[in-house]
Amino acid sequence: MLSISHGLTGAFFAAQLQDPILYVPIALFSHYLEDWIPHWDMGTGLSDGKRTRSAAIILGSIELSIALGAIFFLWGSPTLANYHIWLGAFIGLLPDFLEAPRNFLHWEPSFLKSINKFHAGFHHSVPNKVLGLVPQVLLWGIIIALTISK
Asked: Any long-range contacts for 49-54 (C-beta under 8 Å, 24+ apart)?
């Protein structure tokens, strides 16, 4: 999934639950659940050579910036009063952050191998952008609607 999906989901659970004992495991679990849903993301095409690592890094960085902007728009800048929202977003993105050195730098510390292998077991990327983006856009719409309606 895109960073927007993982970040918004983690932030949303943190905003709703506000207790890290509750939202941290849920935000982390949601990452794996979202990756299990067939999706398209900026890394789609890396393994078969249809996308270069440099293109994925650039596009992924832009997309992560958009994700952070969306969280900022919905919940505001990181402050002591809303740190939990930004922590939830970070936890929602954490498995991808842990996988980034392997995917983009060809470097994987030994302590990350089992974590990344577990994460890879959930990935269901699809090459079709439309089919891969539809579930994500629906998710964004639901999160935005529920957040704005409060």
From this structure: 50/127, 53/103, 53/104
